[in-house]
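Hi U.,

Before I forget, here's the chain from the pilot set. I'm dumping it here mostly so it's searchable later in email.
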Amino acid sequence: QVQLVESGGGLVQAGGSLRLSCAASGSIFSINAMGWYRQAPGKQRELVAVITTYGSTNYADSVKGRFIISRDNAKNTVYLQMNSLKPEDTAVYYCNADVLITATVLIQPWGQGTQVTVSS
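Structure:
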């Protein structure tokens, strides 16, 4: 079994910063891409950022220049540094990963989510 656990969410004023973490644990052979998604009330879940095993990144247009995704492969952990936060960033943030539990079996678990609220 593989679990992803997010942490670091909270309440922050517009213009502030937060750093989210997501640690994967369990029976893990290796992890390929890892990413962050978010979902605001009444809206669909959307991709925020993704990072490959070797550090190649992609970001949603709405967060480019403000958010930074990174990872520590030795710790099976992905981070999301969020700067210059705006009220429209308010959402539940979820992490996702492509996890090989054997050399040939891939699963895509989700974390439980962490709430980020940005006040104006």
